[in-house]
Amino acid sequence: MRTAPGKKLFIKTYGCQMNVYDSQRIAEVLAPQGYATTEEASEADLIVLNTCHIREKAAEKVYSELGRLRRLKQLRARNGGSLAIAVAGCVAQAEGEEMLRRAPAVDLVVGPQTYHRLPRMLARLEQGEAGVVETEFPAEDKFDALARTPERQGPRQVTAFLTIQEGCDKFCTFCVVPYTRGAEFSRPVRQIEAEAMKLASQGVREITLLGQNVNAYRGLDDRGRTVSLAALLTRLSRITPIDRLRYTTSHPRDMDEDLIALHGENPKVMPYLHLPVQAGSDRILKAMNRGHDAQAYIDLVAKLRKARPDLALSGDFIVGFPGESETDFEMTLALVRDVTYASAFSFKYSPRPGTPAAERDDQVPEPVKAERLARLQALLDRQRMDFNQACIGRRMSILLEKPGRRPGQLGGRSPYLQAVHAEARGHVIGDIVEAEIETVGANGLSAHIRARGDDSRPRHRVATEGAAAL
Ligand code: 5AD
Ligand code: SF4
After folding, report:
1. Residue 151: which of 82, 92, 199 has the closest Cα?
2. Dist. CA 416 → ligand 1 center (Å)
3. Looking at the 3D structure of the chain, how many domains does it have?
4. Any ligand 2 atom below 6 A from CB of 53
5. Are residues 46 and 121 in the same domain?
6. Which atom of ligand 2 is nearest to the CA of 290?
7. DSSP character for 468?
8. Residues 47-82: b if buried by 16+ CB within 10 A, e if exposed
9. Tell me, what's the pLDDT at 222?
10. Whose CA is nearest to atom 2 of ligand 2?
């Protein structure tokens, strides 16, 4: 295949962490074709929009961005240059050929299961084909193809995402994921361990395992035995430089006893869990096809907190699902009061074409959704602030991840995923330190570093921008 030395690639990522992971892989897949990433869309030869389809606004944002890019492309053509535009991710998957009709500036449409084929697609484009679309779910293993691509690009990070599972078989009646990402698939253990080890050797100290239904993970080991998420976490926790493990997103139905127990047993598994419940009314949970009622969720949280008393919870909520009455909504508020969350995401229900809930004729009016969302968010905000305030005076370990906002400061994360900044005091990015939380501000917590949190380990300085100066 023809290489194109010196070309620039700009990737804009929408939506979830899996898209962040995919965008990094897209950059890797294109690097051997001569593409280096840039932060400036205006200087790019290829622009990839890695899209999200989970809610209406996400797709609309993509189309308006494509309108702007069309003008950039026209300008480039007038100046004798060229610009290729690719749309990847779930909007690409859902829209397919339609995307080319609705946004004629688009050259390539590639789904989440086919982006390893981008080099081939670009070659077809260069050979004069107009509008190349690849959105099927191929039998070939995307992850196998990706494993053969060279090193990650860009500055070294001390935290990383690692996709271990994709797709969803749950079919919640509001959700497009089972249609855009396909059926549940778990990567084999060996592949995941190899990727984790590579990350560790690059200085990564915290890995977040990703999957649409991450705790439904059932990967195969070398002997063909099925490995659960709890067993996988245990294996990964043996990789010495990896000090912290997280996983997201979990479904309450797949939270098995081993995984619950692991939170109390393995100190590398962080005491923070994203466990969406979506709603607090049994009637609505049933209509959503969630497969559990509110009490089952509350009981599950109690079990988790018994295993790990300081576990901080995060969740997702949908307000204004079709047929949701004021009483149903108040049950969501009651559940939130009962569980108490350290952080949460909440959304107005957005009808997604092709999903069962979108067909219902009892849609909730927009102003009602807006009013409920405001009430729910006020409650969740209060809980988040209370959680942060309660941390003042506490000592906790902080993984220093990046330069702080002011010179001499570093920014990091607490075990509970709070953003924390502190005076560096000789510490560098990649250090895990013990720090006392002093104040809570709009942009996170500020802390005073008391000691190194990992004294037993040889200090490995990670060559991250800004670290050397501190
Ligand atoms: N409308 C609103 N929110 C949705 N989510 C998924 N589908 C929809 C929809 N149609 C939310 C859920 C899910 C999160 C990723 O996005 O809360 O957990
Ligand atoms: Fe969507 Fe439900 Fe699957 Fe989550 S579990 S990805 S909300 S269908």
Report:
1. 199
2. 23
3. 3
4. no
5. yes
6. 2
7. T
8. bbbbbbbbbeebbebbbebbeebbebbeeeeeeeee
9. 96
10. 172
Q: Which of 251, 254, 316 to mutate to test the pocket of ligand 2 (most atoms within 8 A of CB)?
A: 251
Considering the domain architecture, whether residues 212 and 350 belong to the same structural domain is answered as: yes
- Cβ proximity of 164 and 192 under 8 Å: yes
Asked whether residue 149 is domain-assigned, the answer is yes
**Where residue 453 falls among pLDDT bands split at 50, 70, 90?**
low
In a domain, 267, yes or no: yes
The model's pLDDT over 236-270, given as tens digits with 9 standing for 90+, comes to 999 999 999 999 999 999 999 999 999 999 999 99
232 and 360 together in one domain: yes
Residue 367 lies in a domain: yes
Q: What CATH number is attached to the domain comprising 38?
A: 3.40.50.12160
Q: Is 213 in the pocket of ligand 2 (CB under 6 A)?
A: yes
Q: What is the pTM of this model?
A: 0.90
Is 304 in the same domain as 161?
yes
Instruction: Map residue 7 onto helix, strand or coil.
Output: strand
**Domain housing 124:** 7-134
Residue 100 falls within a domain, yes or no? yes
Select from 341, 371, 387 the last residue of a domain.
387
Express each pLDDT in 216-231 by its tens digit: 999 999 999 999 999 9
Q: Is 413 in the pocket of ligand 2 (CB under 6 A)?
A: no
Question: 166 alpha carbon to ligand 2 midpoint, in Å?
Answer: 11
pLDDT by residue (tens digit) across 317-367?
999 999 999 999 999 999 999 999 999 999 999 999 899 999 999 999 999
**pLDDT above 90: residue 210:** yes
Q: Cβ distance 440 to 394 under 8 Å?
A: no
Using most ligand atoms within 8 A of CB, pick from 212, 274, 277 the residue to mutate for ligand 2: 212
CA separation for the pair 107, 94 (Å, rounded): 16
347 CA from centroid of ligand 1 (Å): 7
Say if ligand 2 is within 6 A of residue 173 CB.
no
